[in-house]
C-alpha cells in the first residue's frame, strides 16, 4: 500500500534520495526545502504525488504552518523524516558564537520543534512513524566535531524520552544512525581553521577523504524505507558496518568504565 511521507531537508543528499526512492516506488511525498525549485525535475516526472513547500526549519512559526498545511492537504501522513541539518567542524574554542547558535538552531532545536509540530497530527490520525536522522556521532565523539556531536547527542536524548511519551498514541519513533555515507555532507560542511595551540594535536585533522566514506547513499536510504515499512521498527537503526563497529566498541568501553565504579558509586548512597 502506498505511503505518504513528510521529509525535511529534501534538496540534496539523504533527503533528496529519500524523496526520489519514495516517489519511484509509487508513494506520495510532502517535501520541504529552502528552494522548492531544486525539485522541479521530480515534479515534472511525478506530478501531484510530490507536494513542495519552502521552509527554513529554524523559522519555527513557518515550520508549524507548513506542517499544518501538509497534514491538511493529505489524507494521512504515514512517515515523517526529520532530515534537515549540516556540519560545522572545528576545535570548540575556535568556533564563533554565531556558528554555535546557528547549528544548534538548525540541527537540534528545529528537530525538536518539528517533532512537537507533527505529533498532534499523527495522534489525530491514529498513529504513524517519526524518523529522525541522527548519526553514529550521536553515540561516539571525535575531536574537532564537538558542535556536531552536541546536536546529535542532544536529539538522541530527546527522542529517548519522546518515544515513550508518544507510544500510547500509536506513534513509533526511529533514530537513524548512519556511518560515513557518500552524501556530499562532508564536502558542504563548514571547516574552521585550527588555531596555533591545537596544531599537530588530535583535533588537527584533514577533511575526510572520499575513499573513507564507505557506506552507500542508495543502500542507506533503501534501508530507511524498509524500516518505515516494517511492522516492528527499531528505536535506533544503525546503518553501515563502520557505524556498528565504532559504536559497539565505544559503548562496551563506556559500560566497562561504569561497571568498574560500582563500589565507589555506592559511597554516595543515603
Automatic annotation (TrEMBL):
Xref: Pfam families: adh_short
GO molecular function list: oxidoreductase activity
UniProtKB keywords: Oxidoreductase
SUPFAM superfamilies, per the entry: NAD(P)-binding Rossmann-fold domains
Keyword Secreted: no
Domain of life: Bacteria
Entry-linked PANTHER family: SHORT CHAIN DEHYDROGENASE (PTHR43976), SHORT-CHAIN DEHYDROGENASE_REDUCTASE FAMILY PROTEIN (PTHR43976:SF16)
Family, as annotated: Belongs to the short-chain dehydrogenases/reductases (SDR) family.
Protein known as: Short-chain dehydrogenase
Amino acid at each position: 500500500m502506498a505511503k505518504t511521507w513528510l521529509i525535511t531537508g529534501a534538496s540534496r543528499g539523504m533527503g533528496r534520495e529519500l524523496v526520489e526512492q519514495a516517489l519511484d516506488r509509487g508513494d506520495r511525498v510532502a517535501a520541504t526545502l529552502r528552494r522548492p525549485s531544486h525539485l522541479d525535475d521530480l515534479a515534472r516526472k511525478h506530478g501531484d504525488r510530490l507536494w513542495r513547500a519552502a521552509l527554513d526549519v529554524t523559522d519555527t512559526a513557518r515550520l508549524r504552518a507548513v506542517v499544518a498545511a501538509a497534514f491538511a492537504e493529505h489524507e494521512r501522513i504515514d512517515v515523517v523524516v526529520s532530515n534537515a541539518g549540516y556540519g560545522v567542524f572545528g576545535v570548540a574554542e575556535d568556533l564563533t558564537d554565531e556558528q554555535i547558535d546557528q547549528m544548534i538552531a538548525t540541527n537540534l532545536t528545529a528537530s525538536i520543534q518539528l517533532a512537537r509540530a507533527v505529533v498532534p497530527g499523527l495522534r489525530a490520525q491514529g498513529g504513524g512513524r517519526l524518523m529522525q536522522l541522527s548519526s553514529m556521532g550521536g553515540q561516539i565523539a571525535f575531536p574537532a566535531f564537538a558542535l556536531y556531536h552536541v546536536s546529535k547527542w542532544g536529539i538522541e536524548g530527546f527522542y529517548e524520552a519522546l518515544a515513550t511519551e508518544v507510544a500510547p498514541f500509536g506513534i513509533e519513533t526511529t533514530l537513524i544512525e548512519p556511518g560515513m555515507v557518500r552524501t556530499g555532507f562532508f564536502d558542504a560542511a563548514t571547516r574552521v581553521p585550527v588555531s596555533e595551540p591545537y596544531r599537530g594535536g588530535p583535533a588537527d585533522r584533514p577533511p575526510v577523504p572520499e575513499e573513507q566514506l564507505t557506506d552507500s547513499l542508495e543502500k542507506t536510504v533503501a534501508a530507511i524505507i524498509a524500516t518505515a515499512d516494517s511492522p516492528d521498527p527499531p528505536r535506533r537503526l544503525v546503518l553501515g558496518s563502520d557505524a556498528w563497529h565504532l559504536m559497539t566498541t565505544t559503548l562496551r568501553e563506556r559500560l566497562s568504565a561504569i561497571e568498574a565504579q560500582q563500589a565507589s558509586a555506592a559511597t554516595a548512597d543515603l
